[in-house]
């Protein structure tokens, strides 16, 4: 007997697929509260790791902004004259490794501190300026690797006017390491919650199979292939996944929108133009493809387990 | 068309539904299967429709040995064997037309062809005007005729009927039997289980008699009507 004897003509099969897909969607809409609850659970489960991923990637981009500028702060000795500081700045500016250099006098530092710290009243009580002058040094991009910066620090330490040097690189590195750990955590969380989505969809499909027990039996009786019987349930899983994905996307975009304004305000306080970037198109696409695939998978598992047990008698 | 060779069906409980049953039904024959309740009539039909497999012996339908048929082939076997049940087994969530169309949809028949064939089948059972009716609004006899239309819509070579007139009064039973005879006249092989002895006698067809799982009589056509 030929394997192709039972092949259904493609146009008929396609029409049947379309019809089944629409019928499955129709069945979901006939039980709106139950379906909505399932979709919401899937959406929340997917939105959680996606939202965390969004926050982390935003934090990382923040870290990236700093990474290129592993700044050195040279705190000058209190007794150093301003003219000496400026001469030192010019000398440092001429060095090959240095990109940008800025001299902040003690008075400017105080004014800035007064403006941003909120301790203006306290500062008024002090008789003289407790802050030293600072030279901010930003190495050139090609010399910003740790070893070169380290050498630069050694060199600048020998300057007689320099009290001590603070290197910002260290904590940028730590920050990157922490976000990487958090990224792993999000990945694990995403894995776990994807399993939860599989279970939720599997359970919904199991209930649907139970409620259509008789129909399955009769359809088997009149010679339906397993593929035919599986089809409507797989489409149900697909729709659950797709709608859940949309819902999750909505949740993430809404959260990003709610976070955007306060974040921008905060960034302004740090004189940065940082703002929350929403999900990029790849993530959106991943959502809208990955979620239905999860739905199909959950349905396939449930169908595989429960359909075999229904045999006509 | 249907051949049983030393067929025994033993259920996991140890109960023997059929014991060493052998017979042969030629293509185009119309045969009644009778006997008291629990004699094995339903078991015999289930083995023929491959709802169950026999424990020993061989069941051969349309030159195919059902014992050797892999599970993936079962649906295609069932499409060749139309089945009619006492309780009709209709889907009550859809109208008559959709119920009758189901075997064609399952078999992947195109939409236009499906419409034609469903109407032809409904016309044969006299329900053409009720195609949009829901099964629940039909009488028992009408529901049974919908079940018959569904069984014949794919034009299967074999029809199996399990107590098709069980719940019907004599007049409706006679109508259903007349319908079966018409299918038989166009070459369909029929095997009908019934305990309605007077009806069977009137039909004057070949009769297989089962008792406690064993085939006790194989009466040729007209044996009881004389």
What does this structure look like?
- The complex is a heterodimer of chains A (313) and B (226).
- In chain A, α1 (10-30) crosses α9.
- Chain A is of the alpha+beta class and 313 residues long.
- Chain A contains ten helices and four strands; from the N terminus they run ααβαβααβαβαααα.
- Chain A folds into two domains: 12-66 and 173-306, no CATH class; 70-167, Alpha-Beta Plaits (2-Layer Sandwich), CATH 3.30.70.3040.
- Chain A has a four-stranded antiparallel β-sheet.
- The longest helix of chain A has 44 residues, at 226-269.
- The radius of gyration of chain A is 32 Å and the shape is elongated.
- Chain B starts with a strand and ends in a 7-residue tail after the last strand.
- Chain B has helices at residues 41-48, 74-80, 96-106, 111-124, 140-152, 170-185, 197-203, and strands spanning 2-10, 16-25, 30-34, 56-61, 64-65, 81-84, 158-162, 189-193, 206-211, 214-219.
- Chain B has a domain at 2-91 and 156-219: Rossmann fold (3-Layer(aba) Sandwich), CATH 3.40.50.300.
- The interface between A and B is medium-sized, with 25 and 26 residues.
Set down the secondary structure blueprint.
The complex is a heterodimer of chains A (313) and B (226).
Chain A: H1 10-30, H2 32-67, E1 72-76, H3 82-93, E2 98-104, H4 106-117, H5 120-125, E3 134-139, H6 146-157, E4 162-167, H7 169-211, H8 213-221, H9 226-269, H10 281-306
Helix pairs in contact in A: 1-9, 2-7, 2-9, 7-9, 7-10, 9-10
Chain B: E1 2-10, E2 16-25, E3 30-34, H1 41-48, E4 56-61, E5 64-65, H2 74-80, E6 81-84, H3 96-106, H4 111-124, H5 140-152, E7 158-162, H6 170-185, E8 189-193, H7 197-203, E9 206-211, E10 214-219
Helix pairs in contact in B: 3-4, 3-5, 4-5
Describe the structure using short key phrases.
A: 313 residues; Alpha-Beta Plaits; 2 domains; four-stranded antiparallel beta sheet; B: 226 residues; alpha/beta; Rossmann fold; six-stranded mixed beta sheet; 10 strands
């Amino acid at each position: 007997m030929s394997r192709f004897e039972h092949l259904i003509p493609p146009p008929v099969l396609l029409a049947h697929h379309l019809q089944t897909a629409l019928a499955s969607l129709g069945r979901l809409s006939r039980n709106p509260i139950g379906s909505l609850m399932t979709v919401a659970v899937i959406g929340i489960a997917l939105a959680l790791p996606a939202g965390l991923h969004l926050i982390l990637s935003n934090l990382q981009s923040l870290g990236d902004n700093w990474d290129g500028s592993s700044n050195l702060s040279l705190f000058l000795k209190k007794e150093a004259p301003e003219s000496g500081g400026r001469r030192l700045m010019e000398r440092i500016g001429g060095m090959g490794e240095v990109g940008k250099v800025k001299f902040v006098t003690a008075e400017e530092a105080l004014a800035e501190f007064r403006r941003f710290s909120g301790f203006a009243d306290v500062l008024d009580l002090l008789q003289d300026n407790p802050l030293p002058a600072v030279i901010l040094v930003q190495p050139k991009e090609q010399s910003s690797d740790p070893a070169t910066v380290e050498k630069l620090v050694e060199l600048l330490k020998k300057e007689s006017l320099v009290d001590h040097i603070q290197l910002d690189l260290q904590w940028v590195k730590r920050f990157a390491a922490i976000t990487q750990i958090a990224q792993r955590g999000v990945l694990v969380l995403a894995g776990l919650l994807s399993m939860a989505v599989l279970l939720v969809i599997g359970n919904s499909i199991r209930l649907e199979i139970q409620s259509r027990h008789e129909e399955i039996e009769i359809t088997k009786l009149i010679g339906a292939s397993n593929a035919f019987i599986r089809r409507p349930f797989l489409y149900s899983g697909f729709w659950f996944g797709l709608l859940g994905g949309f819902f999750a996307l909505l949740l993430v975009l809404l959260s990003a929108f709610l976070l955007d304004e306060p974040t921008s305000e905060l960034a302004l306080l740090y004189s940065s133009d940082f703002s929350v970037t929403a999900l990029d198109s790849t993530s959106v696409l991943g959502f809208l493809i990955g979620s239905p695939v999860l739905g199909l998978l959950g349905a396939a598992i449930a169908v595989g387990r429960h359909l075999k047990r229904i045999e006509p008698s | 068309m249907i051949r049983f060779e030393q067929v025994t069906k033993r259920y996991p409980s140890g109960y023997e539904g059929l014991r060493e049953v052998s017979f042969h039904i030629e293509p185009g024959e119309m045969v009644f299967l009778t006997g008291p309740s629990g004699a094995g009539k339903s078991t015999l039909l289930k083995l023929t429709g491959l709802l169950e497999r026999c424990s020993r012996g061989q069941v051969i339908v349309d030159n195919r040995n059902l014992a050797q048929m892999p599970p993936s082939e079962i649906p295609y076997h069932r499409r060749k064997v139309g089945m009619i049940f006492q309780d009709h087994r209709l889907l009550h969530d859809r109208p008559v037309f959709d119920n009758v169309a189901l075997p064609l949809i399952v078999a992947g028949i195109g939409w236009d062809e499906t419409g034609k064939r469903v109407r032809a089948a409904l016309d044969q059972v006299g329900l053409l005007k009720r195609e949009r009716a829901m099964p629940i609004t039909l009488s028992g006899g009408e529901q049974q005729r919908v079940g018959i239309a569904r069984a014949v819509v794919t034009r299967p070579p074999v029809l199996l009927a399990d107590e098709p007139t069980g719940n019907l009064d004599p007049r409706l039973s006679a109508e259903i039997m007349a319908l079966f005879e018409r299918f038989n006249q166009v070459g369909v092989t029929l095997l009908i289980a019934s305990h309605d002895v007077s009806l069977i006698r009137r039909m004057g067809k070949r009769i297989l008699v089962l008792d406690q799982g064993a085939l006790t009589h194989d009466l040729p056509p007209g044996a009881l009507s004389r």
